[in-house]
Amino acid sequence: MAETRPHRPAVRPAPTARQRAADIAVWAVKVVSRAAALALALYIAFRIFPTNPANSLVQFVESVATTLSLGMSDLFRLADARWQVLVNHGLAAVVWLVLGSAVASLIRRVSP
User: How far apart are the first and last CA of the chain?
Assistant: First the structure.
């Protein structure tokens, strides 16, 4: 029977500057896309549940969500305003998440 040798883990070389830059770019894209989706989700929650429209946080989230809605805020016209906000801004949040993941994946694939 052959003598077995203990397994040695592979030693990974230190990442290059380009690899570190690509990792930072991937991280930044993911953070931005997830923050945009979170802002849209907060806006949906503020519109579905009763909130004080004079509150500064509600006003800030509304202004950010209006900017981040990608023109989808009036894509579908539904009878209930709450459902309309949920569908339109929810779709925009999903688009942000999908685009963020796609761009991050593309950066990973292109990086050395």
Answer: 42
- Residue 12: how many other CB atoms lie within 10 Å: 6
Handedness of CA 61, 71, 35, 41 (dihedral sign): positive
pTM of the model: 0.82
Per-residue pLDDT of the chain (112 residues; tens, 9 = 90+): 667 777 777 787 888 889 999 999 999 999 999 999 999 999 999 999 989 999 999 999 999 999 999 888 888 888 998 999 999 999 999 999 999 999 999 999 998 7
Angle at 45 between CA 40 and CA 51, to 5 degrees: 120
